[in-house]
Amino acid sequence: MTGKFAALSFALAASTMSVAGPAMAEAPLPQNRIAEDPAGLADLVLPYTPYLFDFAVTSMRSVAEITYNGRRYDPITRSLVVTGLEVDRDGVHFRIGQMRVATDQMILDDVAVDTSGLPLDPTTREVLDRLGRKIVVGSVTVGLDLDAPRADYIVEATARLDGIGAFDLDADLRGFHFLAPLDRIEGEAGGGRPEIRGRLASADLAFTDMGVVPALYEVLGRQQGLSPQAARSAAAVIAGAAIAGMFADLPGGSTPALQQKTRDWSAAIQAFLKNPGRLQVAFRPDEPFDLSRLTDRVVDARDVEDLDAEVFDGQAVTQALLSPQALVLAPDAPLADVMALAETLLKGRGTPQNGGRALDLIMPAAMDGNRTAVALLAEAIAMNPYVTIAQEKLAPTYVSLDLALAEGLPFAAESLDAIGRRLSPAEIVGAEDEAVSTWRQTPVGQRQRAAEIEAFRTRDWATIRRLAYAYYEGAEMPRNIMRAYGWASIAAAGGDAVAARLRDELTRAAGSGKLVLPLDRARKATDDLWALILGGDEPARPAGTSTPAVGGASEESTTVPPAAGAPAGGAGTGGGASAGGAGSGDPSDAAGDRRPGGAGPSREGSGRPGGPNGESDDPAASAPPRAGGASPVPADPGGSATTPAPQPPRAEDSSSKAGDGIEPPEQPEGDDGERETAQAGRISMSSR
Predict the structure, then answer these.
(1) Which of 480-494, 599-613, 645-659 has the highest mean pLDDT?
(2) Do 377 and 513 fall into the same domain?
(3) Conformation bin of residue 321: beta by default, left when phi > 0, alpha when psi is -120 to 50
(4) pLDDT-derived band of residue 36, with 50, 70 and 90 as boundaries?
(5) Is residue 344 domain-resident?
(6) What residue numbers bound the domain in which 419 lies?
C-alpha cells in the first residue's frame, strides 16, 4: 500500500510539473532581446496550464478518485494554482489545500495525509498515536534555480510536519544528471540501475525536532522496559559509539583526521539526542565532489574525507536584524563597506528592501567601472526594470551593462534591454559604440581588434561572419548591432550565405521594431566601407583627396593598390561597422552629432576617444603610414550622408584619425582567454 501511495503522489506531481516544465525562464520577453529568448515558451504555454491540468487529472481518474475545487493561472507569479485537491484510492487519502507550481518553484500548503489506511510498522503507528497525529498535516516547498545549459541546480526544499518535525535541504549541484539504464530506454528487460552523474559543490541537510524524538523515547522505552529518560541516555550512548566506529573498516583505512571528525560527529549527535533541537549535516568539499565516486565503486576513506562533512547540534543561524544606525556609513567609508551595504539593501537582508537607495550607493562606483558595482547594478535593474535613474545616467549605464554583457556577468542582458527601452535609437547606437571603443582599449579587446584587421586584410568572410554574430549577441564583446549588420553585409557580399541570412534577419527585425538599427545609416555606412575595401582595385586617388566624413568631420585618405602579396582590398577595417559606420570605434560615428540637428554627442575632430599614448582607439588609425602612401585599409565611414570638401593635407603624426596606413597592431602578451580590462576612458570593467 505504501508503494501505491508513493506511485500516486509521484504521478500527480509529474502531471502538474509537466504542464509547466517546458518553460524555463522567469521574465517576459523584452522587445529588444538579442542574446536569448528565455521566456518565449513560458509565455506561450503557462497561461494554458489550467486546461492542461484538467486534461492530466481527467486521464488519471482511471487510477484514483481525484477532485479539486478550482485551478487558475496567476500571471504575476507565473504559476499554476490549484485549490482543494483530493486524491483517494484504497487506503491512500490525502488533500492539498493549495498547490502552486511554477517553472522554478512548487509550494504545497495545508497538506493532510490520512495514515489510518497506510501499512505502517507498529513502532511508527504507536509514535503517531502518542503524538495524536493520525492525520499528518504540514507543508512542502521546493525551490529550484536552474542553469539549464550547464545542468547546474541550486535546490532548496523544506518539509514541515506539524507536531513532528521539519526537514530542510539545500544543495548546489553542478552538471547533474540522473541517467536511466539503457536497457530500459531500449525496451529490454534488465536489472540495470540508474546512474547519478555530476558534482556536489555544497549541501546542507537539517532536521528540527517538533515533538517526534521525545515520543520515540517513550515508545522505545516502553518496548524495552525503560523509562523515557533511560531510553534517551541509552540512545545517545549507542548512537555515539556507532558513529565513532562506522568508518574504522573503510577501504584505505581511517586516517587520524577522519578519526577526529567521527569523534566530533559523535559528540554532536549525542548532544542532540540528549536535548533534541536541530541537527545539521553540512558538506563543504574543497572542490566540487564527483558523485559517481559514491555509486560506481566501494566508498573508501578518501571519499569521506573529500566530502568534508560536518555535523552541528543547535539552532540554525538566523538573519541578524539591522537597526537604522547600522545602515549609515561615514562619507569616507571604504568602497567594500559601501558595496556590502548596497547589497544588503538590494536583497533586503536584515532590513526591508530599498532598491532606490541601493542604486544610489552602487551608481558612482559602477560609473567608474568597478566590477562588483556593475554586477550589483545589473542585478538591481533586473530586479526592478522601472527603478528611477537620472536621464543623464541612462546612456552611461547602458555602456556599463554592455561591457558587463561581454564580461558574462549575471543579469546583464535583461538589464541592458530594460535600460535600452528608455533610450532613443540614436542614444543606444552611440552607447553601443562607446562600449566597443572602451572595450578595445583592454588587452583582450586589442587582440580582437588585430583579429578583425587580419580578417579584412585576407578577406576571410567566415571569420567576419563569426564576428558579426559575436557583435549581435554580445558574446565576449559588447553588443553592437550596427557593427553586426555591417559585418554580416560585408561577409554576405563576399559570398557567405550564413552571413546573408543574418543580414536579412536583422533587416526584418529592424523594420518591425524588434531591435534598434537605423537601416538607412547602416546601409550607407556599409556601402562606404565596401567601397573602401575594394579601393585596392581602383586607381589611386591624388594625394590629399578626402574620404567620406566620420560623424561629419573630414578625414583624409589616399588609396593605393595593396602591397605585393596582399589580397586586393588590403588590410582590415580596423574595428568594424558601428553606429555611424560599419567600422568605427567612435560613439559619435555611431549616433551622429548630438548638437542641434544631430543625433550624437558633439566631439572635436573625429570624436574618437583617445587610446593609450594618445592614439586613436580605432585600429584603422593605430599605426603610422607605410612607405609609398596610405594603406588600402578603409577608413571608418561616418553617419553623415555628405562628403565634405577636400581639406589641406595634415602633417603626419601618430594621432591622425583616418587615412593613415595600418599594420595589425602587435598583440599583447597573455592568455587569450583572460578577462583583463584596463582603466580606459570613463568605464573599466576591472575590480577595484
Answers:
(1) 480-494
(2) no
(3) beta
(4) very low
(5) yes
(6) 337-423
Report yes or no on 497 lying in a domain: yes
Instruction: Report the candidate in 465, 452, 467, 397 with the shortest Cα–Cα distance to residue 428.
Output: 397
The 10 Å Cβ neighbour count of residue 394 is: 18
111, 537, 673 from 87: Cα distances, Å: 12, 80, 56
Per-position DSSP letters for 431-458, written without gaps between them: HHHHHHHHHTTSHHHHHHHHHHHHHHHT
How far apart CA 394 and CA 398 sit, in angstroms, is 6
Q: Is residue 412 domain-shared with residue 486, that is, in the same domain?
A: no
Residues 410 and 474 in one domain: no
Residue 655 lies in a domain: no
d(CA 346, CA 339): 10
> What pLDDT shows up at residue 35?
37
Q: What CA–CA distance (Å, rounded) separates 420 from 319?
A: 36
Q: Of 565, 600, 621, which closes a domain?
A: 621
User: pTM, whole model, 2 decimals?
Assistant: 0.63
CA 263 to chain centre: 41
| C-alpha–C-alpha distance, residues 68 and 50, integer Å | 12
Residue 557 lies inside a defined structural domain of this protein: yes
Question: In the chain, how many domains are there?
Answer: 2
Q: Is the dihedral of CA 596, 600, 602, 606 positive or negative?
A: negative
Q: Is 459 left (phi over 0), alpha (psi -120 to 50) or beta?
A: left
Q: Per-residue DSSP letters for 316-381?
A: PPPPPPPPGGGG---TT--HHHHHHHHHHHHHTSSS---HHHHHHHHHHHHHTT-HHHHHHHHHHH
Residues 411 and 528 in one domain: no
What's the grid cell of residue 204?
Answer: 546542507
Specify the pLDDT at position 184: 57
At 181 the three-state DSSP class reads coil
* pLDDT one-digit tens code per residue, 436-477: 999 999 998 999 889 988 888 888 999 999 999 999 999 889
